[in-house]
Automatic annotation (TrEMBL):
<dbReference type="Pfam" id="PF13188">
    <property type="entry name" value="PAS_8"/>
</dbReference>
<dbReference type="Pfam" id="PF13426">
    <property type="entry name" value="PAS_9"/>
</dbReference>
<dbReference type="InterPro" id="IPR036890">
    <property type="entry name" value="HATPase_C_sf"/>
</dbReference>
<protein>
    <recommendedName>
        <fullName>histidine kinase</fullName>
        <ecNumber>2.7.13.3</ecNumber>
    </recommendedName>
</protein>
<keyword id="KW-0418">Kinase</keyword>
<feature type="domain" description="PAS">
    <location>
        <begin position="15"/>
        <end position="50"/>
    </location>
</feature>
<dbReference type="GO" id="GO:0004673">
    <property type="term" value="F:protein histidine kinase activity"/>
</dbReference>
<keyword id="KW-0175">Coiled coil</keyword>
<feature type="domain" description="PAS">
    <location>
        <begin position="119"/>
        <end position="164"/>
    </location>
</feature>
<dbReference type="InterPro" id="IPR003594">
    <property type="entry name" value="HATPase_dom"/>
</dbReference>
<dbReference type="InterPro" id="IPR052162">
    <property type="entry name" value="Sensor_kinase/Photoreceptor"/>
</dbReference>
<keyword id="KW-0808">Transferase</keyword>
<dbReference type="InterPro" id="IPR000014">
    <property type="entry name" value="PAS"/>
</dbReference>
<dbReference type="InterPro" id="IPR035965">
    <property type="entry name" value="PAS-like_dom_sf"/>
</dbReference>
<keyword id="KW-0597">Phosphoprotein</keyword>
<feature type="coiled-coil region">
    <location>
        <begin position="356"/>
        <end position="390"/>
    </location>
</feature>
<dbReference type="Pfam" id="PF02518">
    <property type="entry name" value="HATPase_c"/>
</dbReference>
Length: 606
């Protein structure tokens, strides 16, 4: 078919094809548009160079009497140089077997449209995933759109909010007539602490910013708000923790000083005020500087050492206060660091050992008198044996007393001081953290440290009772009967066996029962058996838990070792040792624990 290539007739390119798309002829403009020559296109079916058809996939397939005489579609055509262009194509039936196709290049239009779609998708993604609530409100006070965070904060769905008056979530909406932008003609506001109304009827605290914006030539309010509920809860928990720390500080039986790097006393608790005999903390701070006080030369030296070395510094010294008290004091000092790990100040634990030192001096004097009398007196054999027994018992009592004082002093000085240092450290970290998850970790650790302090104080109470009362005979069956737990079956096979032990023997079996429950659970089965051997009587406490690994069988009796307080098994061994009774763990790991108690021959009876 012959025709002239006129733009007003053919557009940017025209070709003719039969009912199945076989090309009959093409215009010069179509050749220019695609890069093919007339000859190259003459033997082709148009589908050979079509990559994609939008809409009717049978666009180039006309069936007489079935297909319409006019069609329109956008097609993606592959040019001779392999590049692709979009063509908007109109098809007209010219005759029974000839279709005319008029094409227009819309590649730029398609690309711009795709860019707009991509931009819209990006903006919608940002709007929907920004970690702050976002609400767009029209001049009619109706909500135009909300993002996911708004729904998360308020509890409403997007469908429940869109189209509703903003009063549904905003306290200063249409009904209040207090909207800063619509009612007071402000263009924006920042940092307003307010609340949003939520679906459950409660209000959530938020920090809100808002600005007047134009969308499609219309005015809207764009509100952005940050959920403050987690922050407010963290502030409340921090406040409660500060109160709890202050109570621990104020009620501690040990004196505590907080001293800055210049030697100035920042804070001191009532126990410290009482030790020094000062009228008030304020007067103490105004009159004493650790680094330049004439009677605190050793303290100044140790304080400088504490500032230069990352460890607890402990020492004792005599000191006469400016208020006239003559004291013998024990100091334990530890560093407190800032966020850059620089020593900020020092916590000093002060313990008054004046009375203890006086007792030790008096005891030394009495021992000296005894030694002198022993040299001068001529005693009968019976008198010597009796006096030797009395001296031995006195020495045992003195040894036990000193041991108890040293352990109790160590617990008071080091364990409690360490936990208070931990507590203060986590308190400071929690106060600086703005992240709720991190703050919660710090609060949990502070609770754990406070619980450890309580357990340590409770242990000192039990340990002070050790050895105070005379040992006596205990029937094992009677002791176990007092301890029976409704949920725990105890098979007692010790019959009428009695052992001579400290009055706290019941505490031994109570701690063994607690240990079995802790490691074997509420379903634990406990068996108590006894036998007589050459070394004395053997008492076996056995449970069906996991038992103790070989490398830990001796460690578990050390103070501070264990999953709970670390004092239970330590206290058991101390109580039994009063009358030379021994205990060890001899079970097979994986089959259960077995605590073997060995009673000397003269310390048991049937």
């Amino acid at each position: 078919m012959e025709f002239t290539d006129e733009p007003d007739i053919y557009g940017e390119g025209t070709f003719f094809a039969d009912n199945t798309g076989n090309i009959i002829s093409v215009s010069e403009s179509f050749c220019n548009l695609t890069g093919y020559s007339h000859e190259e296109l003459a033997d082709k079916n148009i589908s050979d160079i079509i990559t994609r058809i939008l809409g009717d996939e049978y666009f180039f397939n006309f069936k007489t009497g079935i297909s319409p005489d006019k069609k329109r579609s956008d097609i993606l055509l592959r040019k001779k140089d392999s590049s692709e262009i979009w063509l908007r194509t109109n098809a007209y039936r010219m005759s029974e077997c000839c279709i005319r196709y008029i094409t227009t290049d819309i590649t730029d239009l398609k690309e711009k449209k795709e860019e707009l779609i991509n931009s819209k998708n990006i903006l919608e993604t940002i709007f929907d995933n920004i970690p702050c609530g976002m609400v767009i409100i029209g001049e009619d006070y109706r909500i135009h759109s909300v993002n996911k965070k708004t729904c998360e904060i308020t509890g409403y769905s997007s469908e429940e909010l869109t189209g509703e008056f903003c009063d549904i979530i905003c306290p200063k909406g249409k009904e209040s007539k207090e909207c800063p932008i619509w009612e007071k003609n402000k263009k924006s506001f920042d940092g307003m602490e307010t609340a949003v109304k939520c679906k459950g009827g409660y209000r959530n605290p938020v920090l809100k910013n808002a600005e007047l914006v134009q969308l499609d030539s219309r005015n809207y309010i764009l509100e952005i708000f940050q959920d403050l509920s987690v922050l407010k809860e963290a502030e409340n928990r921090l406040r409660r923790s500060e109160i709890r720390y202050r109570e621990l500080f104020q009620n501690s039986p040990t004196g505590i000083l907080l001293i800055d790097r210049d030697g100035e006393i920042i804070d001191m608790n009532p126990a410290a005020v009482k030790i020094y005999g000062s009228p008030s903390p304020e007067e103490t701070r105004s009159r004493i500087n650790v680094l330049n006080h004439p009677q605190l030369k050793k303290t100044a030296e140790k304080f400088r050492e504490c500032l230069s070395e990352d460890k607890i510094i402990s020492y004792e010294e005599y000191y006469t206060t400016i208020w006239g008290r003559k004291l013998y004091l024990r100091y334990d000092a530890s560093q407190n660091h800032d966020e850059f790990n620089t020593i900020r100040d020092v916590t000093v634990n002060v313990q008054d050992l004046t009375d203890r030192k006086k007792d030790e001096t008096e005891l030394e004097e009495k021992n000296e008198i005894l030694r002198e009398l022993n040299e001068k007196l001529t005693l009968t054999e019976e008198e010597m044996i009796e006096q030797l027994y009395e001296i031995t018992e006195m020495q045992k009592a003195l040894t036990l007393s000193n041991k108890k004082l040293n352990i109790l002093s160590a617990i008071t000085r080091h364990d409690i001081l360490n936990q208070i240092t931990v507590l203060r450290g986590y308190l400071e970290l929690a106060s600086e953290s703005k992240d709720y998850a991190s703050s919660k970790i710090f609060f949990d650790k502070m609770d754990s440290a406070a619980e450890r302090i309580q357990n340590q104080i409770e242990f000192t109470g039990d340990y002070e009772e050790l050895g105070i009362s005379e040992p006596k005979w205990h029937k094992i069956s009677d002791v176990i009967r007092k301890l029976r737990n409704k949920k725990i079956a105890v098979k007692n096979r010790c019959g009428e066996l009695e052992i001579f032990a400290d009055s706290m023997l019941e505490k031994v079996f109570y701690n063994l029962m607690d240990n079995s429950i802790r490691y074997a659970g509420e379903s634990a089965e406990i068996t108590l058996t006894c036998k007589i051997c050459s070394s004395g009587a053997k008492v076996y406490w056995m449970d069906n838990g996991t038992g103790v690994p070989n490398e830990e069988k001796e460690k578990i009796f050390q103070r501070g070792v264990g999953k709970n307080t670390g004092f239970g098994l330590f206290l058991i061994r101390e109580i039994l040792s009063i009358t030379d009774i021994e205990i060890q763990e001899t079970g097979v790991y994986g089959e259960g624990a077995c605590f073997e108690i060995t009673v000397p021959k003269d310390k048991y009876r049937w």
